[in-house]
Amino acid sequence: MTETSKTDATADKGNGEVWIVGATGRVGRGVTARLAARGLTVVPVGRSRERMLAAGTDAGLAGNAKVIVADSAEQIAHEIAQKRPRVVVNTMGAFAATAPVIARACMPGGHYVDQANDVAAVQGLLALHDEAVEAGSTLVTGAGFGVLATEAVVAKLCEGRPTPHRVRVDAVASVAIEAGVLGAALAASIVDALTAGGRRYENGQLIASRLGADPQQLIFPDGESAKSAGASSGELLAAYAVSRAPFVTATSALVPTAPLIRALLPPLGRLLSVPALRRLAVDRLGRTTVKATPRPRKHSWGHAVVEWADGTRHEGWLRAGDGMDFTADVTATLTELLARGVGKPGAWTPAAALGADLATTAGGTFVLD
Ligand SMILES: NC(=O)c1ccc[n+]([C@@H]2O[C@H](COP(=O)([O-])OP(=O)(O)OC[C@H]3O[C@@H](n4cnc5c(N)ncnc54)[C@H](OP(=O)(O)O)[C@@H]3O)[C@@H](O)[C@H]2O)c1
């Protein structure tokens, strides 16, 4: 755990610095480039100095820029506690484990942002709300296409209206695949989605449901279409929190909809719950080499259908470009706002922290009925 060349004499104080944990990864590189272009003092944090310096140069950082070498959430937390950066962006994944450790180290006074979209991680971060209020820190989870693309639509549809009875959100990211290995962070997210199974809200209670339930054939406002099916996600939690509807479901285009595969999802999830098999699956999947593939559709779409007890129904969409680019845009936009002191203390999902219009500031477009 060491620190390389400092950019100036005040660097040790971390005054005004934005640390990017995982700056060599896909989201981290995108966020680093965006924040560097906006003139923020960006410091990559990760386990390989060489890879961070190379990625930093590509992202527009100086060749001798400061980097922090640390290879676990605990070591990163130690560095944060010593140097007090203003905002820490955590893109290292495994958020259920890493987010509370890193977010706690940001308090008091520092702010925290991650891209978690699984129930355990989002619940874990939101559980720090009272601590964050006390500490004057803003902690934001789900700062990406998932959670914001659907949360923002639900917030817009519920604005100025009574509490609805039922909400469904659908997330359909369109993502170009980079050539190379899939990566452990994404592999872990995929495996964890399988083991977590499904969830939905019924009478205001979060209950287990079948992964792949409630398959949808969605026709987007631009005429393209895609299928999605039920998943447990941070999007589900945020849709409930923002609407307070007693019945909430969430689907995702990442969940297979073919009947045979849907039938296999629950047993596969149970199998991968065995720790040794989970580790093996994450390792194998993470090392899988993938070919560069263009995004399957021009747009990514967040969708919400909100229904009231009197039969009133409103539907809306958030249109974005590539889902990964939108994720980097959301994180960069949010991080810049937090670095500038905009944001209320507490632990939040993105629209709860900074309003639904964060989605348009980050480049999305609402299509509301
Ligand atoms: N909410 C959303 O819409 C959304 C969208 C995209 C991604 N995500 C999530 O965001 C996370 C990042 O995705 P990604 O595609 O950018 O992943 P990635 O390309 O695999 O990047 C992960 C980064 O974390 C670093 N890292 C991993 N383990 C580490 C450790 N022990 N110590 C220090 N650094 C470590 C890696 O560094 P090395 O260079 O050393 O490997 C790499 O820089 C994933 O969990 C993904 O599921 C969410």
Care to describe what's here?
Pfam families: Sacchrp_dh_NADP. This is Saccharopine dehydrogenase NADP binding domain-containing protein. Residues 18-140 form the Saccharopine dehydrogenase NADP binding domain. The protein is of the alpha/beta class and 369 residues long. It folds into two domains: 11-144 and 326-362, Rossmann fold, CATH 3.40.50; 145-323, Dihydrodipicolinate Reductase, domain 2, CATH 3.30.360. 41% of the residues lie in helices and 23% in strands. It is built from 14 helices and 18 strands. It has helices at residues 26-37, 49-58, 73-83, 95-106, 119-126, 129-135, 145-158, 184-196, 234-243, 259-272, 275-287, 323-339, 350-354, 358-361; strands at 17-21, 41-46, 68-69, 87-90, 111-114, 138-140, 166-172, 180-181, 198-202, 205-209, 216-219, 225-230, 247-252, 289-290, 300-307, 313-320, 346-348, 365-368. The strands form four sheets. Strands 3-2-1-4-5-6-17 form a seven-stranded parallel beta sheet, with helices on both faces. It has a seven-stranded mixed beta sheet with strand order 11-12-13-7-15-16-18. A hairpin with a 5-residue loop joins strand 15 (300-307) and strand 16 (313-320). Helix 8 crosses helix 11 (275-287). It starts with 16 loop residues before the first strand and ends with a strand. NADP nicotinamide-adenine-dinucleotide phosphate is lined by residues 22, 24-28, 46-48, 51, 71-72, 91-93, 115, 117, 144-146, 183, 185-186, 189, 324, 327.
